[in-house]
Inverse folding.
């Protein structure tokens, strides 16, 4: 008997390059196991696939060790932010206000 499978995509954007891989995994595979089966670890050996934060279509997966993938899922591997976006916006707004005050 043929084992049912599902097709998924795995994406990761490093600082210098991005990769989108398609993979076929057995039905019932968890998100974490799908990452390991996808081959993304060979493309980015520096990634710790057993502990990295992941999401599916932009929504964070709270427990990738139990969440089962569905056909067509796009698993996204997240990397840490280098700067807090809110802090960057706050600093940019303060700088713009200072420049505006100087020009008046």
């Amino acid at each position: 008997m043929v084992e049912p499978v599902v097709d998924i995509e795995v994406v990761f954007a490093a600082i210098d390059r991005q990769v989108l891989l398609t993979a076929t995994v057995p039905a019932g595979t968890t998100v974490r196991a799908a990452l390991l089966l996808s081959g993304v670890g060979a493309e980015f050996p520096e990634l710790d696939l057993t502990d990295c934060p992941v999401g599916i279509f932009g929504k964070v997966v709270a427990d990738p060790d139990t969440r089962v993938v569905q056909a067509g899922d796009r698993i996204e591997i997240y990397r840490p932010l280098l700067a807090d976006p809110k802090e960057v916006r706050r600093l940019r707004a303060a700088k713009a206000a200072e420049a505006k005050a100087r020009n008046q």
Notes: Residues 85-103 form the longest helix (19 residues). The chain has one domain: 5-103. Helices lie at 31-38, 40-43, 85-103.
